Amino acid sequence: MSGNLDTTFAALADPTRRAILSMLLEDDMAVTDVAEPFEMSLAAVSKHLSVLTAAGLVSQEKRGRVKWCKLEPDALHAAAVWMQAFGMLGPLDLDAFEGFLLGQLEQEKAANP
User: Fold this and answer.
1) Distances from the Cα of 9 to the Cαs of 12, 15, 18, 69, 75, in angstroms?
2) CA distance linking residue 111 with residue 113, whole number of Å
3) Could you say which DSSP state residue 15 is in?
4) Whose CA is closest to 58, among 16, 93, 96, 90?
5) What is the predicted pLDDT for the residue at 3?
6) Residue 35, CB half-sphere, CA atoms under 13 Å: how many?
7) Rounded distance between C-alpha atoms, residue 29 and residue 77, angstroms
8) CA-to-CA separations, 96 to 26, 62, 74, in angstroms, rounded
9) Tens of each residue's pLDDT in the chain, 113 residues
10) Separation CA 57–CA 21 (nearest Å)
């Protein structure tokens, strides 16, 4: 599982690849349509798509002469579960933490005059 998470997060680390995934949320797209908004070569976009495909985040299939890309949202499930585990910690309330520490110091002073 760790290898899969590593591959997924490595694929998500690049802003171009995240933008591609966002575009594919709308609908399946031809590779040429995916490449259109980016100021890079078709080969560079194809390389990004290869990384996303290797991570299982995107699937590609040929329909006639055109190569189509499709988002595979289930591939993000393991990463989402892993990240949700950290949501259980909740935000740190620094004021409450400071109060707790001051209370501990007062208790320690009272116990050791």
Assistant:
1) 5, 12, 11, 20, 11
2) 6
3) H
4) 16
5) 66
6) 15
7) 22
8) 43, 58, 39
9) 456 889 999 999 999 999 999 999 999 999 999 999 999 999 999 999 999 999 999 999 999 999 999 999 888 888 888 887 777 656 666 677 677 777 777 877 787 76
10) 8
Q: Quote the CA–CA distance of 86 and 43 in Å, as a whole number.
A: 37
Give the residue carrying structure tokens 């892993």: 82
Neighbours of 19 (CB within 10 A): 14
Residue whose structure tokens are 């760790």: 2
Structure tokens at 30: 């031809």
2 burial level (CB within 10 Å; 0-12, 13-18, 19+): exposed
pLDDT of residue 81: 83
